[in-house]
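Handover notes (outgoing to incoming on-call)

Open items:
1. DUF8094 domain-containing protein: sequence verified, structure written out, both below. Nothing else pending on this one.
2. Nothing else urgent.
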Amino acid sequence: MRFVWAVAAFVLATVMIGAGIAQRTIFQGPKTETTAISVEEKTPYLLIDGAVLNQMPGTQTLRAQAEGDIFASYGRTADMEAWLSDSTYTHVTLDDEGGLETAVVEPEVDATVDPTAEAPAEDAAADDAAADDTTSGDATAETAGRSPVGSDLWLDEYQQTDLLIAPLQLPESMSVLVAADGTAPAPSRVTVSWPLQTSTPWAGPLIVGGGILMAVGVFLYILGIRHARRKRGPRRKGLPLPVTEPIDIAIDHDDKGVISSAKPTRRAVSSGGRRAFAVLPVVAVSALLFSGCSADAWPQLGSSPTPSPTATVIAPDGQQAPAVTKAQAERILTRIAATVADADAAMDGDLADTRLEGAALAARDTNYKLRAALGDYPAPAPILAKPLEIILPQAYDGWPRSVIAVADDDESKTSSIMVLTQQDQWADYKLSYVGSLEASTSLPDLAPAYIGAPQVEPDSPFLLLPPDEIAAAYADIITNGESSQYYDLFEADGDQLRASIAADRQRRLEEFNKTASSTGNLEFSSAAGVQAPFALQTVESGAIVAVNINEIDTVKPTNADAVIKVNDNRTVKTLAGVDQSQTGFATTFSDQVFFYVPGPGSNEKIRLLGYSSDILDAKIL
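DUF8094 domain-containing protein structure tokens:
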């Protein structure tokens, strides 16, 4: 009976294991779903809409094949369409029935130009002559492509031969741009793949259960053999036999011929056959157990974990998308820092102009001029890029668009606050304001990077002071101190800029009066700089405002026969081009200053966040 149960266990185990393995192999089906995008039109760009990428659930895998390097990037669909607005490209979307639809999109035509207007009669001959050059003109237009590589507009980009991007997890609001170099036709062999849900929750239990049942069958089989051997003994009792002594068959002869008996030894009896018989099923069962141990081969009996609630910030209705993501801002700022570092090393103002503008560029230009003339003049502080601690992008779909960023320097234990601006969809971001944060500065509450903040208009009445009045008001405080009408609006405690300016002016005035008080006069003044202010809203209806302030030191002679000499001041001498003047000198310092400006109903004052100060110019009066 034990043999019957053993055979039944073997059969049932074989069925269970076979069914489990079949679920993981022949019955499992394909693991991915692939859609091929075939493009017949030859255009330099291929834009794959987010709806195409999300026609199946799960992560996406994009593959493009062509000769040479292939470029691909992704970003918000509206941004990509804006970047392609002056180019011819192929747009891949879904039709109403869910099928792929490709269309060639032509560049937008300027509405101010009437293409149907007739040319004047005197231009007819010129038009006829130009007709002969149509072919060459078209060829020139086709070759005048724009490379998509390195654009600050992309959230991420890739460039390789036989392009493969996996995994992607883009929402429908984003699209993928595929191209060669912006001039050659885009790859025509593109596929998008998605993983299919191929879990086999009963494969694991069937394989493991079959393995256990096979082990039970082996055990029953061994018991059956043992029971059968015990039944083979004699059934009749024989006559009693005399007791016999064991015979020693091992005889040893020594050198004298004496025979001595040795102790009997036992021969090791090999049981390899039985052990092999018992080990093979165990190995087989172990192999089968391991074959079904992946997570998707088991039923998920537990409930899904419930995420703990966290505080969230909800974007106001109608607010537009943030200008950049944090990863995008890190990449942009890294590019800016690298380019400016190269410009600083070469003292190349044209190179600096590709990544700087406004007050930041003006300060660099002056530094390069001084360093070219004065070999020991210090280089400007480098642009900090990593780690990027805070990012507040402008929530705006159009252009120009900006972002405020704060980066730390782990070595010097300092932080920089910066304003980056992109003038249009084809331009690179440029740094327009940069300043060092005060050591004890606490920034106001800011919206998260994935929401962004709207820009505050320069003349906005919804702040303690409009942004376009901040620079003039603070300059008035620097000049007039507590007698300024704006003194009570600004927080004096912790304002290191105001304190350092006052101390420096007092020192220089005392030095000037020691030698030149009888022949000259030194005056200090401050005024708003030429750079426009920039402001982004904070959570509590305040704003971070960046402004430009100029400090002007004026030296004039008080005696008609006196001459102002600047032999000891190499900086002024270099910038002014002379070392003395009968009319005097004016030296201008440019301050890039960041403030927190509260709303009109707040009990807080306008608070200094950070600043930088550089010499800007010196000239003869």
